[in-house]
Structure formats: C-alpha cells, structure tokens
Write a structure and sequence with these properties.
The complex is a heterodimer of chains A (704) and B (484). With 704 residues, chain A is an alpha/beta fold. Chain A has 20 helices and 28 strands. The chains are: A alpha/beta (704), B alpha/beta (484).
Chain lengths: 704, 484
C-alpha cells in the first residue's frame, strides 16, 4: 500500500507539471490528430471526479459511523483516486478546448476546472482534519459550478431553462407586433433591470406593456403620438451628466438608433398590437424597421449549410484567367471571376462543376458566353450573385436561370436583354437587385418591371445628360509641327462621329469651313496656322485650336557638341534634341526632352557637317526660350562660324544681346536668324554663351 | 549522532527530491512535445494568417483612390460653416487655435482674419448632405457617398502628409496602402498588376508626386505600384518586336525563366523569382491590356458621363474612366493623383477650375460602378492629404483670399465597398477649426479601409528588421459607425 501510494504521488506530480506547461504555453500548443480522441474523452472521464468528490463528502459525513483506521485507509485511497481522475479529466478538457474557438462560457468552465484540480491536489497533502474538511466542501461547491458550466457548453447555456423561455423566442416577421419584436427587447435590456416587480425604482415597473402604461411617480412613460411629452424620451435626451438622465450614467445607454425607433413608434401611437405590415407605405418607422429586419435576416444568412471545398480543388481551379477564391477562412462560400475575352474557353466555366455547391458569386463580364454557359450556371443552386455585363446574352438564354432559387443580385448591364426578362425575374423569389443599364428596355417597361417585381431594386444608371456639353478640340494625329513640304498633316478626334472643320487662311473656322476628310499638305511658305474646330450632334462645338507648322529645313549629316547640356540623362542628348524637329513652345521652356540647357561654364558649342546640301544652305535659325522664372535675357552672344575643312574657321556673324529685363509681353520663345547664303561651307560651328549665372534653354537649330 | 541522522535525512530528501524532480521534468517535457518550436526560437511562432485570403468575409474587393493632391479646402467643398461668413475679417480667437503650429508661410502673419466660403452651399439628396456649388455633380450622388468631416493628420506639409496618407508613415520607406493590399489579398486578375497608379494635373498650384508614394517599401517588389503612362498607350512596350509572334515570345520567356532559376539556385536572391513572375505577367498582359484599353465596347454616351475630357489621355476624366476599366478587370488598387489643389492665394479664382476638372468625372466614376453592379464591391475614396485653414493667408480682401495648410480637420468622402451610403460622419466646431465629434485619424482610416477589404489591420503584418510592421503601425481603430 505504501509503495502504491508513493507511485501514485509521483504520477500525480508528473501530471501537474504537465498541466502547468500546457497552461503556460497554451497559445502555442498544436494538438496532433492522434491526441484529439483523448481530448474528446473528457466528457466521459469527468464523471469520475464528480462522483468521487461527492463520495468523499458522503464518507466524511459518515466518518463517525466507521472504524477510524478503515476510514483512513478508504479515504486515502479515494482522495488519491479523485486527484488522479481530476488531473486526467482536466488535461483532457484542455486538449478539447484547444480544438475550437474560446467562448466566455468555456473560459469560466476551464478556469473553474483548473482551480478545482488544484484544490484536490491540496487535499492529498492536508493532514489537519478541519482544513481538510473546509477544502473538501469548497471543492464540492466548485464541482457543482464547474459541472453546470460544462453542461452549458455541451447542451447550450439555456438547456435547463429552455422549456420555460422557448415560448417567447419567435422569429420576427412583418406580422410580429412591433412592440414585441423591437420595442420590448430594448426595454428588457436597458430598463427592466431597475424597473421590475421586485425593484420598482421611481415606482415604475416596465416588465410588461400594461405595467408601463400605469407609469411611475414621474408621469407617463409614453404619451401616444407625442414623443416630446413622453418621459422615457425626455429622460433619454437629457445630457448624460444630468441626474435625471436615463438610463443612469454607468449603465448601458440607449443607442441613437434605439431612440429613433422609440420616437417613431410613439409618434405612430405606441400601439401594442401594431405590426410592420399595418403601417402605411411611405412611413419612416416602416423604413426603419424593414431595414432592421433585413439586417437581422442577413445575419442569419451569413452562415452557409454546405461543406467546405478542399483547398486542393480550389488551388487547382485557380489560374491566371480564372480567380477562384474562398470568401474567408471561416466561410465555405466561393467567388469566381473569369477574365479575358480573347483567352476564354468554355471549359473555364464547366470546370467549376467541382465547386458547384460552394459557388455563390460568379462574374463573367465581357466574355463570349452563350446559352449553354447559362445552362451550366443554372445548375449552381447556391449562386447568389451573377454578373454578366456586356456579354451577348439575351432574355431567352437567361430563362434557364429560374432554377437558381438563391439568386439575389443579377447584373445585366450592356447585354441584349429586353422586357421579357420579367418572366425570369418573377420566378426568382430571393432576388434583391437587378442592374439594367444600357439595355434596350424603355422607361415605361422599367416601371412595369418594378410593379411586377416589387421586392427587387432596379438600377438603370445614367441615361444621357440633359445639358449639352462642349467637345474637346481636334487633335493633331501626325504630332509633328516641324515638317517638310512633302509631309501630310493628319487631324483627328477621339470621339466617334465628330466633324472637323478647318481654315488655312487665318479666318476663324465655323460649320461652313472646309470639312476635314483625309490628311492634308501644308504650304509652308504661307506661315499661317491651320485653325480647327470640332462639331457633333447634341454637343456644343469645341474651342478653336490652332496648329502652326515650321519647315524642317536641311538635316546635318553629322552634328556634334562639346557639351551635351546640363542635366543630361543620356549621352548625346543635346545632339538629338537640337535637331530632332521637336520645337518647344513659350510655356514649357525647361522640360528636358524638348530643351537642352547650357550655362557659361558649359556653353553650347556645336559643329554641323553637310554633304551635298552644303551649297543650298541660306540661313541658320537659332531657336531658344526664356523660362518664366528668368527675368532677364539669358543669351549673351551667338557666333556662327564656317569652314571648308575642320581647322580654319571664319566668323560669319556674331550677335550680342544686352543683359536687361525681359518685358512681360516679350515672347519667351525666341529665334535668331543668321544669313549664311552662298557661303558654301560644309562645316558650321554654332557657339552660344549665356550671361553670367543665367541658363540658356535651346530647343532647335534649323538650317534652311 | 544527531548530525549523522540529520545528514541521513538530508540524503534521503535529496534523493527523494531528485527522484520527484525527474517525474516533474518528465511531465514538463511531455507537455513541451505539444508545443512546436518552443525551444527553437523560430520566426513563425505566432501563427501568421495565410496570405491571399481575407481574414473575414467582407463586401469590398477593390479600391479606387482619388487623391486630390495639394489639399482641397474642406470649407469650400463639404464642411459648411456659415458662421465664418458672419465673422469675415475678424481675428481667429486664440481659444480656438490653442497654439496650433503653423507653416512657415503664415507663421509670421500678424493677424489671422477669418474668411467664409465664397461659394454657396446647399443640402442634397435624402441624406441632406451639404455640398458647395463647386461640385454640382457630386451633389447629385450624395445618397451614394459617406462624407467624413472629421479627418485629421499629423503632418502639416504636402510631402510628409501625402506620404503619411499613402503609407501610414511620414518617412518614405514604408509600403504604400496599395502594396499592403496586394501583399495581403494578392492580385484578383493575375494578368494585370494588383496596384496601378495614374497621374493627372490640374491648372492650379501643383505639388510633387513621387514614386515613393507607390513604393513596395520592404515588401516584395511584386507589390509595387505600376505607374501607367498618360499617353494613348497607358502601358508602354507591350507589343512584341516585329517578326516575333506569341509562341516564340512564350518560348523565349520560358527559357529565360530557366536561366533565371539557375541564377536563383546560385544566389538565392528572392528578387530573381519576382522578376520571373513579372516577365510571365507581362506576357499575359499582352492580351489582357488591349481588351481594357479598347473603347469599342463602351457605350456612346460614356463620354457624356465622364465629360469630353475623358477622351484626352492624361486628364483626370480619362484617368477616372481608365480606373473604372482597370478596377472592373480586377485590379485590386487603382491610385489616382490629381495635382493642383494648393490654393494659398486666389482660392476664389483657382479652386473652381480645379473643381471643374474633377467634379463630373468623380461622380461619373461612382455612377458608372453603380450601374454595373460593382459599387458594392468597389471602395472609392476621394480626398486630399490635409485641410485648409479657416483664416486667410496673406491679405484678405472682399474678392481675394487664400488658405494655408490645416492638419487638424479636413473632409474626405467614401463610396461603395460596404460603407454606409448617404451619411455624414464627424463634426467640426462652428469655425471649422477643431473636431468636436468622432475624430478620424489617418491610422483610423487605414484600419477601416483594411477592415472593409476583409483584413484585420492588426494581423496584416510583415516582419522586417526584427519587428513586425503594420500599415497602421501601433495605432488605428475601425470606424464601426460608417460600416453598412
């Protein structure tokens, strides 16, 4: 016996250490699958400690009736056995608790159980009779509570009282009296705590409609049709610090929504029997309650009854052209979107057979689907949302959807459906919203649809604007404004059906000016801009847009610079910028792809070489800009040199600019023309040096 | 003798103690078997949530963010303060300002003359939302939007404030909101980047927008925002070179991937894998993008909705239209920036132009999503990085005023995506300077945005430099009141 006891004590110590570790690292524990059955045996084993503790109490009770030595032996044996079964049951319980999420009730049960387990362990070591007795009786009470909460976990918290309260728990519908469905629950949770038959604060009992009608010592709780005189609301509207504010500070307060509800209901007459259905159609209380009811129903619907699809199936179906996604780790519902008109194959849709139970949302916008696709969709019995925007589907094709009895949202914008879609809609009981923008259904037909499907919201979207809008001006498709005389100028407009009118004689274009049809050629000697304007039916004409063109001239065979310009990101930047036929305008000096920048330390020093064109060159035009932050002329001087070879240079012209203020009206895009006619030089050197501390922005050098 | 007995007892006790300890240690050891990684000190011991799946079911799937860069004045848009008009020219009471720091632009101003909106306000829709006459089209959709009038931020200058709004930190080294969402939820359409950025510029005083705003920070570079070009081809260089067809291109990429995999095997740089993925996506984009930029499926009156500007690439209107198309095609986060809202002076002259640029297209975007049944799953956010002061910057005259930066209160609006439509949230005092009801910090907004997208802002983390980073850092509360 002695040996058995010491072994038992060792084992007990072992298990208590085990329990301690489990408790400390509870959050990080993962239970392997083979251990789970042990946890699940908790409800089986726990009956041992319960019975044994009761037995110990009984034994202790009849202590005097038994021979003291026998008592001691039996008692010792029972205490050890109790301790053993208690620790085992507790550890099992802990395993079990880790399998599911924790609730409040579970927490209470768990910690009571652990506490009880510790008490029993003390019991093993207590020698003094009176301490033993106290601990035992505490443990007895403890086991009652632990057992009660534990039973609550398996059978539900209201298991015992359920038959008594069940009668009150009815589903709220449109025909439930508003008082019973919405008002009483508020009063029960927020008021009855202090105003009940046992505790009539302010001489008021709010436990039933009749009692409330009697009022308290401070007057009537609600005055029918007069919320302002109703004490209930008067008190609720007082500031929280006010001593008469109800519910009192520190207690759970009425929410804004609850106050609105109470106000609206009292305004309606505070009638006990009134239901939502009895309210007039456009009543604010009705709107409030229907929304509330919908929210309640939604809460219920958020849980699905079908099983989870396996992760493997979902992963196998998910590919770059088809997104298959579980709504959340806790929801088995799956959403699918298929993308890509060009890459679509019918198989992408029919593959979804494997998850047809879980599929609740499907988006097939823009895809080339047909009647057989719809037939497949009609087998998705849990489908709630279907988006078919801009597909070629028509009302007839869609008829098959009548078997989707859970469909709530149907989006058919931009499809070929017509009014006959109503045949389908009438057969979908849960339908909430239908999108019918950009379809051939007239306004009258929409009204008919609404009256035939009163529970459905129809979204018809934008139907064209009432006011006329202004068009944007025509654009230059050919882009280049520096051209040769053989280049075509192409105009255009992004909007289909726009007429472009233009003039080339500097007159303002109107609806009688020449109509632009094909690309045109420009007389570059004329130097007048093309003036363009856009017209379209039901739109206001655009503003007039001018496009000026510059002759491209001769392009040098080679063009080299000593310095590529400041802020150059690429080698050879200025080399390209200066002869790229891209001219800047007065507004944008400084932005890099058009302008190259020089300063006094790194001036412009370029050499241009011409082969056969050399003899034809008559003038050089140097084009530069003054940035809006520059207040003074930036160019100090410009020199043009000519040479037959590359060694002996002859100065052709030197132009010096004074350093003075730039007049506000002065054009900031400037050109300097240098006549080099008949010089016959194949090499030209252009040197441009800015004033001290100024930067010189050059956009182009032309050779004519 | 006593000593011997005593020692004997001690010995027994020691043996007893050690024996018992062995059992105890055994028990503890058995317990530890159930705790994986208890003694390993591994990185992943706090059971991170799986990526690519929502933490909980929610309605919103995508976000379109219409950032009004430069900070539009809340006092001329959504926060109606008639009292400011009555107090025209009076000095801002110190009791209201409460030592609020000012920018260098007005800190030396001798007085702070209050100035009310020059533009009239009216209530619109069933919700009775106040909107100024500068936004006639947004006024028409007030029942679809939720105006938050009690936003506040930490920063007082554009760049830090915008960086804060986008990344949750004033320093620019954190991932942008779009990158976080791309990281947390992945791409919806794997043929397109999950995070796209579109830029446009109004006529007003512009402020810089830099690529750090759509940076992936420490996240994988797959999550970086992709800036689309303001030209006819929003995504450049997508065409195959002349003479190369699709099959050849695919073959080339497959071989390139093999080479890259060799490189990865040798160096182990995860960016090599990112690169392979990016090449593969670019290949799929070659067919996906032309379908998106194709306007032929758009009904004719779409330009009437968005305005004629929507046909000119690079305008706010055309970016809104493109944003709708991208979002409709499953781009998780479309980020627009419209520059030019910084009206320090001549507000009465410049703000109407800015408003005209964005009003029609912003409203059209929301209506367009709605009529396609997409507004429920798309969250649209409109707003600047901070607000503007209720006093005038510079000299106040009857017909010229300007407003300085004001981080303490500003207005934004949200639509769709599970936000309570047709409501206004939060309140400022009658001078529009301080918040008196339901303040919403940028962190709170971020927490709410993530919540709407089905993510718990406290659980979406990334371990970097030894700590777990969040978009909301250690702050943020979800605004439960604005959830539908």
């Amino acid at each position: 016996m002695k040996k058995l006891e010491s072994i038992t004590l060792q084992i007990l110590f072992f298990f208590y250490c085990f329990l301690l570790v489990l408790l400390i690292f509870e959050k990080n524990i993962t239970i392997p699958f083979w251990l789970k059955p042990i946890g699940r045996m908790h409800p089986l084993i726990l009956h041992f400690p319960i019975t044994l503790i009761v037995l110990l109490v009984i034994l202790n009770f009849f202590k005097t009736k038994i021979d003291i030595e026998t008592y001691k032996q039996i008692n010792r044996f029972l205490v050890l056995f109790t301790a053993f079964t208690t620790i085992i049951a507790t550890i099992m319980g802990l395993f079990l608790s880790l399998e599911s999420s924790t609730t409040n009730l579970m927490n209470i049960h768990k910690w009571l159980g652990i506490g009880l387990c510790c008490l029993i362990y003390f019991l093993v070591f207590i020698k003094k009779e009176y301490i033993y007795k106290t601990v035992l009786y505490i443990a007895f009470i403890g086991v009652l509570f632990t057992g009660h909460y534990g039973a609550g976990l398996t059978h539900g918290a209201n298991f015992i009282t359920e038959p008594l309260t069940k009668a009150e728990h009815k589903e709220i519908t449109l025909d439930t009296p508003i008082y019973l469905g919405f008002i009483k629950p508020i009063i029960d949770t927020k008021c009855v705590g202090c105003h009940n038959p046992e505790k009539k604060k302010g001489d008021l009992d709010m436990s039933s409609f009749e009692k409330i009608k009697l009022g308290g010592k401070n007057g009537e709780i609600w005055v029918s049709e007069n919320p302002n005189k109703s004490t209930l609301l008067k008190r609720a509207h007082l500031p929280l610090e006010h001593k008469e504010h109800m519910p009192p500070e520190g207690k759970k307060q009425l929410t804004k929504e609850e106050i609105n509800l109470l106000t609206a209901w009292i305004k309606q007459g505070a009638n006990e029997k009134l239901t939502i259905n009895q309210l007039p159609k456009k009543d604010s209380l009705k709107a409030l309650l229907t929304n509330k009811l919908k929210a309640l129903q939604k809460k219920r619907e958020f849980t699905y009854s079908f099983d989870f699809a396996s992760k493997k199936t979902i992963l196998a179906l998910d590919n770059p052209y088809r997104t298959v996604l579980q709504k959340s780790p806790l929801s088995p519902a799956i959403e699918v979107v298929i993308y890509g008109r060009e890459t679509y194959k019918p198989k992408f849709l029919t593959d979804l057979e494997k998850i047809k139970n879980q599929l609740v949302s499907l988006n097939l916008s823009y895809l080339p689907i047909n009647k057989s696709s719809i037939n497949f969709i009609s087998t998705l019995k849990n489908l709630e949302e279907l988006i078919l925007n801009f597909t070629d589907i028509n009302s007839n094709d869609l008829q098959a959807l009548k078997s989707c009895k859970n469909l709530k949202v149907l989006s058919l914008s931009g499809t070929k459906v017509n009014y006959t879609i109503t045949n389908l809609l009438e057969q979908l009981p849960t339908l909430e919203k239908v999108y019918l923008w950009n379809v051939s259904i007239s306004q009258d037909e929409i009204i008919a649809l609404i009256s035939k499907n009163p529970n459905v919201v129809f979204e018809t979207g934008f139907k064209g604007s009432e006011e006329k809008l202004q068009l944007t001006p025509p654009i230059l498709i050919s882009k280049k404004t520096v051209i040769t005389k053989d280049d075509f100028v192409e105009l255009g407009h992004k909007m289909p059906g726009v007429e472009i009118r233009y003039t080339i004689n500097d007159s303002v274009p109107d609806e009688n000016s020449s109509l632009y049809k094909t690309p045109i050629k420009i007389d570059l000697k004329n130097k007048k801009p093309i003036k363009t304007i856009a017209y379209k039916n039901n739109w206001l004409p655009s503003t007039v847009q001018n496009y000026s063109f510059v002759d491209k001239g001769y392009t040098p065979h080679t063009f080299n610079l000593v310095h590529q310009g400041l802020n150059s990101e690429f080698i050879g930047e200025a080399q390209n910028i200066l002869i790229d036929t891209n001219k800047g305008n007065s507004g944008n000096a400084k932005s890099s792809p058009i302008w190259s920048t020089f300063n006094k330390e790194n001036p412009l020093n370029a050499v241009a070489y011409f082969k056969e064109d050399a003899k034809k060159i008559e003038k050089i035009i140097f084009s530069y800009g003054i940035h809006k932050q520059q207040k003074k002329e930036s160019l100090h001087f410009l020199e043009i040199w000519g040479s037959q070879g590359k060694d002996k240079w002859h100065l052709i012209k030197r132009i010096t600019k004074p350093y003075n203020m730039v007049n506000k009206k002065l054009q900031r895009a400037k050109t300097i023309e240098v006549n080099v006619s008949n010089s016959g030089y194949p090499y030209f050197k252009i040197i441009a040096i800015p004033h001290e501390k100024e930067k010189l922005y050059v956009d182009q050098i032309f050779f004519y | 003798m006593d000593k011997e007995f005593f020692e004997h007892r001690l010995n027994v006790n020691r043996r007893h103690f050690l024996g018992k300890m062995a059992m105890g240690v055994g028990g503890a050891a058995l317990g530890s078997l159930l705790v994986p990684n208890l003694f390993k000190g591994s990185n992943n011991n706090n059971a991170e949530l799986p990526l690519g799946v929502k933490h909980f079911a929610s309605k919103a799937k995508r976000i379109i963010m219409l950032t009004q860069n430069g900070a539009p004045s809340q006092l001329e848009s959504f926060d109606y303060k008639p009292k400011l008009r009555d107090m025209f020219g009076q000095d801002l009471p110190e009791s209201i300002r409460q030592g609020q720091r000012l920018t260098g632009m007005t800190a030396n101003q001798k007085s702070f003359p209050l100035v009310g909106s020059k533009f009239d306000f009216k209530q619109y829709g069933k919700s009775g939302t106040w909107v100024s006459e500068l936004f006639p089209n947004i006024a028409k959709i007030t029942d679809d939007i939720c105006v938050i009038k009690s936003m506040h931020t930490d920063a007082i200058n554009h760049d830090p404030a915008l960086t804060f709004f986008q990344t949750g930190s004033q320093q620019g080294n954190r991932p942008s909101m779009g990158s976080w969402l791309s990281y947390g939820l992945g791409s919806e359409n794997k043929n397109l980047p999950a995070f796209c950025v579109l830029l446009s510029k109004g006529s007003g005083n512009g402020q810089g927008v830099y690529s750090k705003l759509w940076s992936n920070g420490f996240l994988d570079s797959n999550h970086q925002g992709v800036q689309l070009s303001a030209s006819e081809d929003p995504i450049l260089y997508l065409n195959n070179p002349d003479g190369m067809d699709k099959v050849q291109r695919k073959k080339m990429l497959d071989h390139l991937a093999e080479l890259n995999n060799l490189g990865h095997a040798e160096f182990g740089d995860p960016e090599i894998h990112s690169k392979i993925k990016q090449y593969e996506m670019a290949f799929r984009m070659q067919t996906a993008v032309p379908e998106i930029t194709d306007l032929s499926k758009e009904p004719a009156h779409i330009t009437e909705m968005y305005g004629a500007d929507s046909m000119i690439p690079g305008t706010y209107a055309s970016n809104c239209l493109l944003a709708r198309k991208l979002s409709e095609s499953g781009v998780r986060f479309v980020q627009l920036y419209h520059q030019g809202w910084d009206q320090h002076g001549h507000l009465e002259r410049d703000m109407p132009k800015q408003a005209m640029d964005v009003d029609k297209a912003s409203a059209a975007l929301i209506t367009d999503l709605k009529q396609r049944g997409l507004l429920d799953e798309t969250l649209v956010i409109w707003g600047g990085e901070f607000g503007r002061t209720n006093y005038c910057q510079g000299k106040l005259t009857k017909d010229n005023y300007g407003r300085d930066h004001h981080p303490r209160a500003f207005s934004i609006f949200m639509a769709g995506g599970g936000v309570k439509a047709g409501t206004s949230y939060g309140k400022t005092d009658e001078l529009g300077y301080n918040i008196i009801e339901n303040p919403v910090h940028i962190h709170d907004l971020h927490a709410t945005i993530l919540h709407l997208m089905g993510l718990d802002h406290e659980k979406l983390t990334y371990k970097h430099l030894g700590r777990r980073f969040r978009l909301t850092d250690v702050h943020g509360h979800v605004m439960k009141d604005i959830l539908a």
